[in-house]
C-alpha cells in the first residue's frame, strides 16, 4: 500500500471528530457460529450468516472457472469470458427477484502482445531490462536518447523529481530524426509526462524509477491511464542513470520496441436493485467482475463477486426487508483503472448521487496467505491520519466490531485508490469493505496473528494464470464471507444514520483522487 499525499489530510480529518467511535447502526452483530446478536438491539444477522455458506460461494466460483476455461482462460472486460460472466451473474440475480440492469460503456481495451525491449545501439551496445507501461503505443523506434532538463541524479532521500511534468522540461525533439525521451518518475502522473514528451515531438519514451528508497527497482505495474501515441517502456533507476550518463558523454542511440493492442471496446456493469427499501437511501454493494487478461481471476475478483452474489441470493431467500434499498453492483473494467465504477459515478446526476447512502467494496476475499483487512475508515492506521469521507469510520466499526464479537483479529488497510471504492470516496460517499491481500508480503507480526507464511505474498497467484479455483482459502471465504453478509444486512436494516443526529452524511470537501499513487491496481505516478 502506498502513502497518500499530505494534501488529502485537511479534507477528511473531520471524520474522526464528527462521530463516535462506534456507529449508531441498528442490527446486532450476530455471528454464524453461535447465532447470538450482540449489537444495539436490532435484528440479528445470524440466519443470514448461516445461509451464506462456503459451499454456496464456491458454486459461483466454479461457474466462473468454467466460463474462463471455455474462453481462453480469461474473464477480462472486452472478451467473451467477461460477457459470459455478466450473463451468469444477471441470470442468478433475476431468479432471486432483483431488478437487474446492464450499464454498457466504451473503454480503452489494452493488451500486450509481445515483450518490450530497449537496447543501446551505440556507442556501447548493451541490452536493458524493461517493462511495457500499460496503454503504451506499439512500434519500433531507433534514435538518440534525450533526458529531460530536470532529472535528479543522484536521487534525494525522499521523492523530489518533477522530471517531465512541464512542457519546458524537454529539449524540443528533432524534426528530422527519431528521438527517445528519458524521463524520471516523480511528482506528476505518468500520463502527464508522456503527453508532454509527445507534444515536444519525441517518438518513444523511456521512464526510469526515481531512485529513492522503495523506488529503485524496474518500473513495472504502471499505467498511463489513457492510450499513448508512442512506445513507452519502464526502466530501473540504475539503468536510467546509466543511459543518462551515456547521453551526457555524447550522442547515445537506442532501439525501443513494444507490441500492443490498444482499441475501444464495449463492456458492462451489472446492477441489481432490491425491490424493497428506501430508494432515497441506496447502499451500493460492489465487487469487480472482470479478471486480468492472463488469468481467470477466481480470487481476484471471483471471490468478491461470488460472495456478494450469494449474499444477495440468500437475503432474497430469507425475505429480509431492507430499510435502505440495496444495489448489488458488479463492475466491469476494474483492471483497466476502475473504469466501470468510475463510469457509474460519473453518469449519476447530482440528485441521484445524493441518494447513495454508502458504498461497500469487496475485492479479493479468498487469498491463501490471507489477513482479515478492513478499509481504514477513520484513518487511525495511516501515518498521515487520513481516513475516508465522514461515515466511513462507522462502516469500518461494523466490520471490526463483528470480527471482535467472534474472537477474530482484523487489520486496517488504507484507502489508497486500488479498488472500486475510489470513485465513491472521491465524491464524499462513505465507504468501507474487506480485502484478504494481494501481492504484498505478509509480515512476521501478521503471521503470528493470522497464521500463514511470513515473507510470502498474501496471494501468490495475484494477476497470474494460476489464479484458479485451486488457489482459494476456504477459511478466508468462511470468515470474510460471514463479515460481508453481516455488514450488508446491518447497513441495510439500520433505522439510524452515521451521525449523532441520525443523519446520513456531513458536508465535507471532496478527496482529490489525483493525489493518490494508485487508480486501480497499477501505479499512476
What does this structure look like?
The structure is a single chain. The protein has helices spanning 9-12, 15-18, 46-51, 54-69, 80-95, 190-199, 237-249, 302-317, 339-346, 350-354, 392-405, 422-426, 444-450, 474-493, and strands at residues 99-122, 126-128, 131-132, 139-147, 179-184, 204-208, 232-235, 253-273, 278-288, 324-331, 356-362, 373-375, 411-413, 431-435. By secondary structure, it is of the alpha/beta class. The model is unreliable at 1-24, 26-41 and 500-512 (pLDDT under 50). α8 (302-317) links the parallel β9 (278-288) and β10. It contains 14 helices and 14 strands. α8 (302-317) crosses α14 (474-493) and α11 (392-405) crosses α14 (474-493). The radius of gyration is 24 Å and the shape is elongated. Strands 1, 2, 3, 4, 5, 6, 7, 8, 9, 10, 11, 12, 13 and 14 form a 14-stranded mixed beta sheet that branches.
Task: Please name the defining characteristics of this protein.
525 residues, alpha/beta, 14-stranded mixed beta sheet, 14 helices, 27% helix, elongated
Amino acid at each position: 500500500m502506498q502513502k497518500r499525499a499530505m494534501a488529502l489530510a485537511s479534507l477528511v480529518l473531520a471524520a474522526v471528530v464528527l462521530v463516535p467511535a462506534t456507529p449508531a447502526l441498528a442490527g446486532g452483530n450476530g455471528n454464524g457460529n453461535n447465532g447470538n446478536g450482540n449489537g444495539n438491539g436490532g435484528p440479528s444477522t445470524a440466519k443470514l450468516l448461516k445461509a451464506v455458506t462456503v459451499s454456496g460461494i464456491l458454486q459461483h466460483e466454479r461457474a466462473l472457472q468454467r466460463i474462463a476455461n471455455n474462453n481462453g482462460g480469461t474473464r477480462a472486460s472486452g472478451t467473451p469470458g467477461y460477457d459470459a460472466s455478466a450473463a451468469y451473474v444477471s441470470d442468478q440475480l433475476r431468479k432471486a427477484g432483483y431488478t437487474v440492469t446492464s450499464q454498457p460503456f466504451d473503454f480503452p481495451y489494452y493488451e500486450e502482445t509481445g515483450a518490450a525491449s530497449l537496447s543501446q545501439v551505440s556507442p556501447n551496445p548493451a541490452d536493458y531490462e524493461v517493462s511495457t507501461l500499460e496503454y503504451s503505443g506499439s512500434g519500433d523506434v531507433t534514435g538518440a536518447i534525450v533526458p529531460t532538463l530536470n532529472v535528479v541524479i543522484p536521487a534525494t532521500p525522499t521523492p523530489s523529481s518533477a522530471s517531465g511534468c512541464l512542457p519546458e522540461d524537454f529539449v524540443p525533439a528533432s524534426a528530422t530524426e527519431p528521438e527517445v525521451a528519458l524521463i524520471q518518475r516523480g511528482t506528476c502522473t505518468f500520463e502527464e509526462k508522456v503527453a508532454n514528451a509527445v507534444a515536444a515531438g519525441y517518438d518513444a519514451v523511456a521512464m526510469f524509477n526515481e531512485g529513492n528508497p522503495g523506488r529503485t527497482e524496474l518500473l513495472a505495474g504502471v499505467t498511463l491511464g489513457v492510450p499513448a501515441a508512442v512506445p513507452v517502456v519502464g526502466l530501473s533507476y540504475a539503468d536510467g542513470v546509466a543511459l543518462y550518463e551515456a547521453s551526457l558523454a555524447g550522442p547515445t542511440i537506442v532501439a525501443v520496441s513494444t507490441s500492443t493492442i490498444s482499441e475501444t471496446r464495449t463492456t458492462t456493469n451489472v446492477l441489481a436493485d432490491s425491490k424493497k427499501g428506501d430508494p432515497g437511501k441506496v447502499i451500493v454493494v460492489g465487487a469487480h467482475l472482470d479478471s486480468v487478461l492472463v488469468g481467470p481471476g477466481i480470487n481476484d475478483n471471483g471471490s468478491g463477486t461470488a460472495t456478494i452474489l450469494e449474499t444477495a441470493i440468500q437475503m432474497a431467500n430469507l425475505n429480509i426487508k431492507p430499510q435502505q434499498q440495496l444495489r448489488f453492483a458488479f463492475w466491469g473494467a476494474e483492471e483497466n483503472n476502475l473504469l466501470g465504477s468510475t463510469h457509474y459515478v460519473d453518469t449519476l446526476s447530482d440528485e441521484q448521487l445524493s441518494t447513495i447512502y454508502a458504498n461497500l467494496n469487496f475485492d479479493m476475499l479468498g487469498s491463501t496467505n490471507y489477513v482479515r483487512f478492513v478499509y481504514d475508515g477513520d484513518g487511525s492506521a495511516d501515518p498521515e491520519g487520513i481516513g475516508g469521507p465522514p461515515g466511513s469510520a462507522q462502516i469500518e466499526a461494523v466490520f471490526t466490531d463483528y470480527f471482535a464479537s467472534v474472537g477474530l483479529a482484523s487489520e486496517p488497510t488504507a484507502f489508497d485508490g486500488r479498488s472500486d471504492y475510489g470513485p465513491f470516496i472521491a465524491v464524499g460517499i462513505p465507504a468501507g469493505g474487506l480485502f484478504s491481500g494481494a501481492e504484498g508480503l505478509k509480515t512476521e507480526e501478521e503471521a503470528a496473528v493470522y497464521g500463514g507464511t511470513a515473507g510470502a505474498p498474501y496471494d501468490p497467484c495475484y494477476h497470474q494464470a494460476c489464479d484458479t479455483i485451486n488457489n482459494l482459502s476456504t477459511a478466508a471465504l468462511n470468515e470474510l464471507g460471514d463479515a460481508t453478509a453481516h455488514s450488508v444486512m446491518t447497513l441495510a436494516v439500520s433505522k439510524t444514520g452515521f451521525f449523532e443526529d441520525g443523519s446520513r452524511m456531513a458536508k465535507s470537501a471532496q478527496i482529490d483522487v489525483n493525489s493518490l499513487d494508485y487508480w486501480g491496481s497499477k501505479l499512476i505516478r
